[in-house]
C-alpha cells in the first residue's frame, strides 16, 4: 500500500481498567437475597466444614479479585478449603465432630478423642470426596456406621479403646482392607515399624500396602471375600460356595469401589449386584443350574447381567468362553459389557427385552409398563447411555425419583389409566419430545403435523433431534415460553406463593432460554430443583407476592440489591443503596431498566460489568482479561444480548457456540498481542517456545497480557538484562531504518544503537529505536558513523524506467509494491496491525491483500495527490469524507476502503520481497491487465475493479487456506476456493 490505513477512525472502545467492586456481605437470615458469590462461599463452607462462614471469612472471600482461580465455582472453592484443612488441626477436629453428630446423632462416645481422631483420618483420606459432606456420607454407610458405633462404645466404657494413634490406624486399616482386626502379632509388627516407614504415613498408605499384599495371599483373599459376602448378603444360601467366593475375589481384586473388604461390601450392596450374586449363589448351592466352572464363564455371566439383565444362553456362553485369549473384548468385564452395548444398538428385539426387564426391576407392579409406548421410551433412554447404558444403567436411571414418576405417569396413560396410548412409535416420540421441551402433550393439530412429516425429515430422526427443533422454535414464541416456564415453576415449586407473578415467570424464561440443564421444560425443572436455585426463586416469588417480611424498607432494599445484581453483577455500594432507599422504586424490573440505560454512558462500569460476566461464564478460559476480549464483551452487552446488562451477557456467554467463540477469540487475541508485542519490542516474531510460554501465562490471565502495551513494557524491562537480544534488536532496527547503508553492521554502529535504544529513545525497544533512527538528523548522523566505520563502495546510477520500478508521477522508486503499508514499512500501530519483518539478508516480509494491490496500482495511475497516495502524509491525522471525495476527486478512495477492510477482516497473506540494490532499486511496474475482482463501497452492490495491474503485483498470489472476499478468487494461487461463506456484502471464501 502507498500509505498507512490508520489515518482512518479506529473502531471499538478503549476504556480504563477498573478493579472488581467488593461485595457487601448480606445477612443470611430472613428472606434477603445474598449475592451469587456469597451464596457460593456459604455453600462451599457447608460442604467442606459443615458450618456457615464467619463474617470475617465471608468478607475475605467475597472481596477476592474476580480472577482468583479458587472462586471459579463451588468445586474449586471446596478444593481450596480441603487443601487448607490439611494444615488446620483445630478445624479438622471440629469438622469431624460435626459430621459424627450429623451421622451418628445420639450414639454415646462419639465425642471421645479416639473416635474424633479416627473420623479426622477418614476425612483427610478423602472418603466420599472428603470434607464434612463426604465424611457424613461415608459414616452413613451401614458397615462404616456399625464400625464407628462399636468404636464409640468401646471408648465409652466397653473394651479399652486403642491406646495410641498408631494402634488405631492399624486397626482401622485392617477393617478397611480385610474386614477384621489384626492379630496381636500383626498389630505388634505394624506399631513397631520405624517412624519413617512410608506405609504408615496414614491410613490410606497402609490400606494400599495391605491391598498390594492381598494380591499375593490366596487364603486371605478367600477369607476377606467371604467376610464381605456375609456382611452384604447375610443369610443368603450358597454364598460360601467356592464359585461365589471365587467370583467375589475377582471383583475385590478388580478394585470394585476401591477394592478390599470395605470396597467389596459397598459393591455387593448395590441392588443389581446384590441380585446377581443372590441368583449366582442359589445356582451354586443347588437351587439352579450348575455354577460356572471357570473365571471366564463368570465374567461372561456378569457382563450379560450388566448389559442385558439376564444370563447368557448356553450357545452365547460357549461362544464367549471359546474366544482366543487375546480377544480385546474379553480383557475384563468392562470391555465385554462395552462390546455388548455396541452390539445392542443393532438388535431391536434384544433392546425391547432388555428395556422390559429393566422396567420390571425398577417399576415392579406398575400397570402399563409392558405397553409398546413405555418400552419404546425406555429403549430410547437406554440407547442414550443413561447412567452408563444397558440394563444396569437403565435400572439405575429409572430409580431416580423424578424419572420414576414420569414413567409411572406415562405407563398409566399408555395402559388406559389416562389418555389413550399413542398408536405408533412416531406418535410416542412426538409426545415424549413435547413433554421434554414444553412439559405438556401436543395438541391434536400439533400431533398430526409431526406424525405426517416425511420420513427423511431430519428433525424426526429421534427424540433428541425433535426436542432440539422444539427448543429452537421456542426462542421465537413468547407465549409458549411463558406457559412452559410456568409449568416448570409449578412442577418444581408447587405451592409457593408468587410463582405466577410476571417477574418470576420472566426470570424463569431467561434461565430456560439460557439452556439451564439442557433447556426446555425438563431442563428448567431440573435446574429449579437445585437447592440454591430453589431458595433464590422462593425469595423472588415472596417479594413479588408480598409474602416477604412486612417491613417495606427491607423489601425495597431487596429489590435494589436484586436490580444491581441483574444489571451489574454486584451489590450496590453503601452510597448507592442509601440513594435508592430515598427514591421511589416501583419494581425491581423498573430499576434494572434504569440501570441499563445509565450503563450506556458509564464506561468504567461497562468494563467492570463485562469483566464480571466473563469471569462468571468463562472462568477457566485464559486471556479473558485482555482489552480486546473485554471490549468485545462490552459491545455484546450494550447490544442487549439476552436482555443486556450483567445477567443478559452472562446468559449469552453461557451458550455453547458463544462460549466457544469467546474461547477462540481469547486465544487468537493472546496470540496477536504476543506477536505484535515481540515485533514492537524486538522487531521479530516470537519463537514457538516463547509463544507457548506466553500462551500459558494468558491461560492464567497474567496482567502483563492485558494489551500490547503492557506486554511490550514487560519485554523492555527484561531487555535490560539480555545483552545478546539488545544487539540483535538494535541490528534489526538499523537495517529497517538505514537499508542498504554500508557499515551499519559494524560493532561501533550497533553499540551506539544499543545505547540509544536502552536510553528509551521514542519509547525504547525496536519500534522506538526505528522511529528515532528515521529522524533526518539522527538518520544522517548514523549514516556518517557507518561511513566512517566502513566507507561505502560507489554504486552505479539506477536506470529510471518501469522495469526497474521508477514511478514518474511520484518521482521515486516503488519498493514492496502491492504490500500493506508505505513502501516496505508495514503497519506497526493502530487497531489493524500488519507489521513488517526486516530480514538479515535485506529482504522484507510483509502482509499483502487484494485491497493493498488495488490501492498501489491506483496510486501509480493517479499520482501522490490521490486518496492516501502521498509518501510523506501524516498517518496520525484522520481525514473526513469530503477530503477523500471532493478535494481529491475521490481517486483511489474505493481501493483504499477495500484495503482497510481487508486488514480488519484478516483477508491477507504474507509475502517476502527481495533485497533492493542500486542495480534493481524497485519492482517491475510494467502494466498488465488486472485479475477480476470487486469492491464494495457505500453500497451492498459490488463494483468491478478495472484499474489494471503491474508485473510486480501480478506475481502476488494468495496461498491455500487464505480467506479472501467472495469475488476475489482469481487472486488465489490455485484460482479456486475450497469453501465459501455467505454473509451478505462481507461474504468470503477460503483458497483451495
Description:
The protein has 992 residues and is mostly helical. The protein has 45 helices and 14 strands. Strand 9 (934-935) and strand 10 (943-944) form a beta hairpin. The longest helix is centred in the C-terminal third of the chain and has 27 residues, at 656-682. The chain is globular.
Number of strands: 14
* Shape type: globular
- The total of helices stands at 45
- How much of the polypeptide forms β-strand, as a percent range? under 5%
How is the largest sheet built, in terms of strand order? 5-6-7
Q: Percentage of helical residues?
A: 55-70%
Q: Ranges with pLDDT <50 over ≥5 residues? A: 1-32, 158-163, 287-293, 417-423, 547-554, 874-882
Distance from first to last alpha carbon: 26 Å
Rg (C-alpha, Å): 37 Å
What is the arithmetic mean of pLDDT? 82
Structural class: mainly alpha
What characterizes the major β-sheet?
A: 3 strands, antiparallel
Detail the topology: elements first, then pairings:
Blueprint lengths: L35 H14 L5 H8 L11 H12 L3 H15 L9 H12 L6 H9 L2 H14 L9 H14 L5 H8 L11 H12 L3 H15 L9 H12 L6 H9 L2 H17 L7 H14 L5 H8 L11 H12 L3 H15 L9 H12 L6 H9 L2 H14 L10 H14 L5 H8 L11 H12 L3 H15 L9 H12 L6 H9 L2 H15 L6 H17 L5 H8 L6 H12 L3 H15 L9 H12 L6 H9 L2 H27 L5 H12 L8 H12 L3 H15 L9 H12 L6 H9 L2 H14 L16 E2 L4 E2 L12 E2 L6 E2 L1 E2 L5 E5 L1 H13 L18 H5 L7 H12 L4 E5 L13 E2 L5 E2 L7 E2 L4 E2 H4 L8 E3 L11 E5 L6 E4 L1
Summarize the structure.
It contains 45 helices and 14 strands.
Amino acid at each position: 500500500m502507498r500509505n498507512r490505513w490508520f489515518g482512518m477512525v479506529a473502531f471499538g472502545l478503549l476504556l480504563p481498567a477498573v478493579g472488581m467492586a467488593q461485595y457487601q456481605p448480606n445477612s443470611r437470615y430472613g428472606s434477603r437475597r445474598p449475592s451469587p458469590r456469597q451464596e457460593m462461599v456459604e455453600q462451599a463452607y457447608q460442604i467442606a466444614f459443615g458450618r456457615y462462614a464467619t463474617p470475617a471469612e465471608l468478607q475475605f472471600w467475597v472481596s477476592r479479585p474476580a480472577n482468583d482461580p479458587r472462586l471459579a465455582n463451588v468445586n474449586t472453592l471446596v478444593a481450596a478449603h480441603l487443601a487448607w484443612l490439611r494444615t488446620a488441626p483445630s478445624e479438622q477436629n471440629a469438622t469431624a465432630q460435626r459430621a459424627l453428630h450429623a451421622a451418628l446423632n445420639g450414639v454415646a462416645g462419639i465425642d471421645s478423642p479416639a473416635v474424633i481422631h479416627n473420623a479426622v483420618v477418614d476425612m483427610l483420606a478423602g472418603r466420599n470426596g472428603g470434607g464434612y459432606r463426604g465424611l457424613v456420607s461415608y459414616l452413613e454407610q451401614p458397615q462404616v456406621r456399625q464400625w464407628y458405633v462399636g468404636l464409640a462404645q468401646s471408648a465409652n466404657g466397653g473394651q479399652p479403646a486403642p491406646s495410641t494413634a498408631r494402634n488405631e490406624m492399624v486397626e482401622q486399616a485392617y477393617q478397611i482392607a480385610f474386614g477384621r482386626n489384626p492379630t496381636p502379632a500383626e498389630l505388634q509388627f505394624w506399631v513397631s515399624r520405624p517412624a519413617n516407614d512410608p506405609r504408615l504415613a496414614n491410613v490410606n498408605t497402609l490400606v494400599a500396602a495391605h491391598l498390594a499384599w492381598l494380591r499375593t495371599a490366596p487364603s486371605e483373599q478367600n477369607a476377606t471375600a467371604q467376610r464381605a459376602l456375609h456382611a452384604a448378603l447375610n443369610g443368603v444360601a450358597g454364598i460360601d460356595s467356592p464359585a461365589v467366593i471365587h467370583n467375589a475375589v475377582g471383583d475385590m481384586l478388580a478394585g470394585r469401589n476401591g477394592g478390599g473388604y470395605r470396597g467389596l461390601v459397598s459393591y455387593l450392596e448395590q441392588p443389581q449386584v446384590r441380585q446377581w450374586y443372590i441368583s449366582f449363589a442359589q445356582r451354586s448351592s443347588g437351587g439352579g443350574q450348575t455354577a460356572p466352572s471357570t473365571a471366564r464363564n463368570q465374567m461372561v455371566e456378569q457382563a450379560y447381567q450388566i448389559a442385558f439383565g439376564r444370563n447368557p444362553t448356553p450357545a452365547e456362553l460357549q461362544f464367549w468362553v471359546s474366544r482366543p485369549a487375546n480377544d480385546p473384548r474379553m480383557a475384563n468385564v468392562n470391555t465385554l459389557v462395552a462390546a455388548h452395548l455396541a452390539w445392542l444398538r443393532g438388535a431391536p428385539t434384544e433392546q425391547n427385552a432388555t428395556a422390559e426387564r429393566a422396567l420390571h426391576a425398577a417399576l415392579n407392579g406398575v400397570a402399563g409398563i409392558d405397553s409398546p409406548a413405555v418400552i419404546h421410551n425406555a429403549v430410547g433412554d437406554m440407547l442414550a447411555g443413561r447412567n452408563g447404558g444397558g440394563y444396569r444403567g437403565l435400572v439405575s436411571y429409572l430409580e431416580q425419583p423424578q424419572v420414576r414418576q414420569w414413567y409411572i405417569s406415562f405407563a398409566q396413560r399408555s395402559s388406559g389409566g389416562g389418555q389413550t396410548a399413542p398408536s405408533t412409535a412416531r406418535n410416542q416420540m412426538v409426545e415424549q419430545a413435547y413433554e421434554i421441551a414444553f412439559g405438556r402433550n401436543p395438541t391434536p393439530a400439533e400431533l398430526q403435523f409431526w406424525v405426517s412429516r416425511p420420513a427423511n425429515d431430519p428433525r424426526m430422526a429421534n427424540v433428541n433431534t425433535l426436542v432440539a427443533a422444539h427448543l429452537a422454535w421456542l426462542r421465537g414464541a413468547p407465549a409458549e415460553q411463558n406457559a412452559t416456564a410456568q409449568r416448570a415453576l409449578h412442577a418444581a415449586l408447587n405451592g409457593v406463593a408468587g410463582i405466577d407473578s410476571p417477574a418470576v415467570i420472566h426470570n424463569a424464561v431467561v434461565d430456560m432460554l439460557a439452556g439451564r440443564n439442557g433447556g426446555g421444560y425438563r431442563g428448567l425443572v431440573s435446574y429449579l430443583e437445585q437447592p440454591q436455585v430453589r431458595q433464590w426463586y422462593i425469595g423472588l416469588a415472596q417479594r413479588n407476592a408480598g409474602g416477604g417480611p412486612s417491613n417495606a424498607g427491607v423489601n425495597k432494599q431487596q429489590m435494589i440489591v436484586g436490580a444491581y445484581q441483574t444489571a451489574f453483577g454486584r451489590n450496590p455500594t453503601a452510597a448507592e443503596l442509601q440513594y435508592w432507599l430515598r427514591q421511589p422504586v416501583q419494581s425491581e424490573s423498573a430499576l434494572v431498566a434504569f440501570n441499563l440505560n445509565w450503563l450506556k454512558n458509564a464506561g468504567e462500569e461497562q468494563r467492570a460489568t463485562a469483566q464480571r460476566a466473563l469471569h462468571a461464564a468463562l472462568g477457566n478460559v485464559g486471556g479473558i482479561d485482555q482489552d480486546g476480549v473485554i471490549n468485545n464483551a462490552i459491545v455484546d452487552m450494550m447490544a442487549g444480548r439476552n436482555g443486556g446488562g450483567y445477567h443478559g451477557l452472562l446468559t449469552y456467554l453461557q451458550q455453547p457456540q458463544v462460549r466457544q467463540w469467546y474461547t477462540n477469540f481469547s486465544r487468537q487475541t493472546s496470540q496477536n498481542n504476543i506477536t505484535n508485542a515481540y515485533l514492537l519490542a524486538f522487531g521479530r516474531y516470537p519463537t514457538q517456545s516463547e509463544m507457548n510460554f506466553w500462551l500459558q501465562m494468558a491461560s492464567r490471565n497474567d496482567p502483563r497480557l492485558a494489551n500490547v502495551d503492557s506486554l511490550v513494557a514487560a519485554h523492555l524491562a527484561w531487555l535490560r538484562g539480555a545483552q545478546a537480544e539488545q544487539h540483535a534488536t538494535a541490528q534489526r532496527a538499523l537495517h529497517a531504518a538505514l537499508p542498504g547503508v554500508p557499515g551499519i553492521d559494524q560493532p561501533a554502529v550497533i553499540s551506539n544503537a544499543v545505547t540509544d535504544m536502552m536510553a528509551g529513545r521514542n519509547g525504547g525497544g525496536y519500534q522506538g529505536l526505528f522511529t528515532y533512527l528515521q529522524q533526518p538528523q539522527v538518520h544522517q548522523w548514523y549514516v556518517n558513523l557507518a561511513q566512517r566505520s566502513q566507507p561505502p563502495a560507489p554504486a552505479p546510477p539506477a536506470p529510471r524506467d518501469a522495469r526497474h520500478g521508477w514511478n514518474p508521477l511520484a518521482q521515486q522508486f516503488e519498493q514492496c509494491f502491492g504490500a500493506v503499508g508505505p513502501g516496505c514499512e508495514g503497519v506497526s500501530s493502530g487497531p489493524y496491525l500488519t507489521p513488517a519483518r526486516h530480514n538479515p539478508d535485506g529482504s522484507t516480509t510483509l502482509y499483502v491483500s487484494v485491497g493493498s494491490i488495488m490501492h498501489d496500482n491506483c496510486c501509480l495511475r493517479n499520482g501522490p495527490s490521490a486518496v492516501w497516495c502521498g509518501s510523506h502524509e501524516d498517518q496520525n491525522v484522520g481525514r473526513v469524507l469530503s477530503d477523500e471525495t471532493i478535494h481529491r476527486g475521490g481517486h483511489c478512495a474505493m481501493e483504499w476502503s477495500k484495503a482497510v477492510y481487508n486488514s480488519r477482516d484478516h483477508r491477507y497473506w504474507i509475502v517476502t520481497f527481495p533485497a533492493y540494490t542500486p542495480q534493481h532499486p524497485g519492482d517491475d511496474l510494467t502494466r498488465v491487465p488486472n485479475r477480476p475482482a470487486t469492491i464494495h463501497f457505500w453500497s451492498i452492490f459490488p463494483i468491478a475493479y478495472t484499474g489494471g495491474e503491474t508485473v510486480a503485483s501480478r506475481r502476488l498470489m494468495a496461498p491455500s487456506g487464505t480467506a479472501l472476499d467472495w469475488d476475489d478468487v482469481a487472486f488465489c494461487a490455485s484460482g479456486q476456493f475450497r469453501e465459501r461463506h455467505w454473509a451478505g456484502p462481507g461474504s468470503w471464501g477460503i483458497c483451495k
